[in-house]
Amino acid sequence: MQRREFLKRSTAAGVVLGLGHRTSWAKSADARVEVLLDEPIGQISPNVYGHFTEHIGGVIYDGVWVGKDSKIPNRDGIRLALVEHLKEIKAPIIRWPGGCFADSYDWRDGIGPAKDRPIRTNFWETDPDAVRLHQKGPQIFEPNAFGTNEFIKFCGLSGAEPYIAANVRSLTALDFDRWVEYCNSPSGSTTLAQERGARGFANPFNVRYWGIGNESWGCGGSFTPEDYATEFRRFTSWIPQYGLDLKLIGSGPSDDDIDWTHRFFEKLLSIRPDHVREFAGWSVHHYSWNLGRGKTEDWIAAKGDALRFEPVDWYELLRQSIFIEEILRDQWAAMEQYDPEHAVKLAVDEYGSWYREGTEVDPTHIFGQQITMRDALGTALTLDIFNRNADKMLLATCAQLVNNLNALFLAHEDRFIVTPNYYVFALYAAHQGAQAVRTEFASPMVHYNRDGTTASFPGLLGSASRKQNAVTVTMVNPDLENGKIAQIAVPGAQIGGASARVLAARDVHDHNTFDQPDAVTLRTLEVFASADLIHVEIPASSVASVRIELK
Q1: Average pLDDT, integer, range 327-343
Q2: Fewer CB within 10 Å: N-end or C-end of the chain?
Q3: pLDDT for residue 471 is more than 90
Q4: Buried-state track 207-244, b at ≥16 Cβ within 10 A, e below 16
């Protein structure tokens, strides 16, 4: 659209006042966004843009790890293309080794000479999705080729901080202490430090983030909240420090289980009223999976297909995605009763879309699925929620990085592509470390047919942050049919210029494949800026990022 035509459409009907502030808006604008620089929320921790890698399907073997002798470009066995792309989006933190795998993992199995490492049965051997592998391959029988040393190497190459989940279900507190010692004790100081040095890692890894178990209400031990509180206290009563500011993450609820949170904190406080000094995060997991619309709650039957979906499935998946905001607020309020100073923040270390099997790029990729624009919008909505709740967030890790649920990358042997989710993280990278500010979005609701009744969804959602003289506004237009002419105001500031990029596709089912790796990609979005307003047209079913330079 030419500038003259765009501005004509935006201003033809004169101006009105909107959103409760003294900003002049064009009547014909479909959406209005007001960035309130004088209402800061909190600094957006870079770590809310983190990632998750588990020993499941093709995440590690065929994803991260290709082997030192592979003809696939690698650095010490780690897929080089993956490392390079993670650096481009400034990946801040990576969680490992699980997930459910973590509570079946003995860290000692993965630190010796490669030829001496034992082969173990993977936790996921019993999953129905693993039946098609016929009890064969590294996805079923864990070779331990990728262990602590390799994970730390992967993080170092990617520029990310390591976040390790400890085994609470089947190892002891002493085993956990020894793992911390292996990772963090000074060079040559202990027997484990010497063993680390013998593997070529003389310097300590300085791992600060440690998860005390994973999903302890389920695969991590089927504990009651009270029993888990006892285990948490036992595992955290003493941990070697080596001068590091350790950040311990407790295993919180599935979705919005407030009862788990209340009962855990009540039990923990009854034992140790001063909490644990290093207790920094409360883990929350939320997957967008239930497309049953009340017809079924069955874990398998309610899942949809990653590629074949109707408009109602589009909106229902996005509705599931934004439920995380309610979870954050509910959990925050529950925790405040026991921790009024909020020393413990929220760690959403598993989130994303989850569909039934059938679209994986290789049969060995348990839980592998294709990624469309629907997933990109779900991820973007989630990241905007983290930004809007920056004061509550310790970290977040998207599940999972490659060849799995909600992946940023798909790989098999020597082939490698990025998914639409990768581009979402690229669009949002500017938020890292910036100051989140309250932002008002006004746009008519989107209506859709939900089994014969009319349902509604917000017409525009997003977030904004400021870093020095640059403001980043990210926006999601969920409307399947209509683009949005949006006006953005920054009251009290003078706009010097603006630029924008957008992630959009010809069809919302579009996705990148090995044969068509650029079916969905970023493009520049035309922006018109005046001294007090930004004008931008956001395509239907898209994610946009606008960078505003202030004078």
Answers
A1: 96
A2: C
A3: yes
A4: bbbbbbbbbbbebbbebebeebbebbbebbeebeebeb
Burial zone of 362 (CB within 10 Å; 0-12 exposed, 13-18 middle, 19+ buried): middle
For residue 307, which of 399, 370, 361 has the smallest C-alpha distance? Answer: 370
> Alpha-carbon distance 538 to 164, whole Å?
39
Mean pLDDT of 179-204: 98
Same domain, 389 and 467: no
Whole-number pLDDT of residue 23: 63
Q: What's the mean per-residue pLDDT of the chain?
A: 94
Residue range of the domain that includes 481: 3-42+436-550
Q: Residues 346, 325, 209, CA angle at the centre, nearest 5°?
A: 20
Residues 128 and 249 in one domain: yes
SS3 434: coil
- Smallest Cα–Cα separation from 366: which of 96, 99, 119, 117? 99
63 in the same domain as 35:
no
- pTM of the model as a whole: 0.95
Q: What pLDDT, in 10s, does the model give residues 65-97? A: 999 999 999 999 999 999 999 999 999 999 999
What CATH code is carried by the domain that includes residue 15? 2.60.40.1180
Q: Are residues 367 and 392 in the same domain?
A: yes
Look up residue 507 and give its two tokens.
């069809």
In the listed set 400, 432, 464, which residue is the last one of a domain according to the structure?
432
